[in-house]
Amino acid sequence: xxxxxxxxLIVAYRSAAHLPRLFDALDAQTFTDFxxxxxxxxxxxxxxxxxxxxxxxxxxxxxxxxxxxxxxxQAAELSRGELLALLNPDAFPEPGWLGSLVAAADAHPDVxxxxxxxxLDADPARxxxxxxxxxxxxxxxxxxxxxxxPKVLADGEPFSVCAAAALWRAERWRALGGLxxxxxxxxxxxxxxxxxxxxxxxxxxxxxxxxRHVGGASxxxxxxxxxxxxxxxxxxxxxRCMPAPLYALLWLPMIAATALLxxxxxxRGQVIAYGQGVLAAIVSSRRMKAARAVIQxxxxxxxxxxxVALTWSPLKLLTRAIVLRR
Length: 326
What we know:
Number of strands: 11
Radius of gyration: 19 Å
Shape: globular
Number of helices: 12
Helix content: 40-55%
Largest sheet: 9 strands, mixed
Distance between the termini: 40 Å
């Protein structure tokens, strides 16, 4: 059997209600040389139905919730395509989405990761994100999240690509080991993108690859679970990936940013959840230092190159600016 060019990886958890619309959008793609691999990550309710499972090329129903990162890796292991397209079950692609990503991959053979323009499904005039940004203080965000989309959004290079709708070269994905499963969810795509950069990799944001993303609740109404994992994983990200010269320079600013975010969590009534995340990061620091040693030992990029890719402006962090380098 001839292998497809692209494998579309979908991890569903309590999101079966979105899947009919998602598969309709995939059926409408102008680029058709792809397979779909669907994982139901042990949804206790709103599980994937047999009718929807039959629309996927491959389907697995997990017995336990392994987390988004591990389940995406599981789907990647089943893939046959030379390109892996990650797609959230609530990220509905426009007809030209996959074609635009593949065209970008063909035009830029030296680039391994490609991101999509994510518009808010409830208000497509506003962005859900245009590439992931990482501040020098260890705080990531989706570029332009919640802001009115500019009339013209050009291609460019973000710090990393958002896993809600992205394309990776399978060879590079496997060389990096995929997403880090201990992250479970949140920041796992920025961690992968950081490791990609440390290994000398590049990424590209493709303006014409558009999806409409429902996403989670607003930033002001995130669940305690999301706040806890977000706090823990953000600290893990800094500990694992920041090169030593930058680590020494930015450790105190990172601690200050952590404290300010804790104050923000207090005003939102989530100080305990945030504190639990910070505590979990502290408790696991020895394990993260061991992971850091492995990651940094294989680093080929200069610390200077990483410094250029980071965003240093506090104003851009506060405004969730789009940061794309030409």
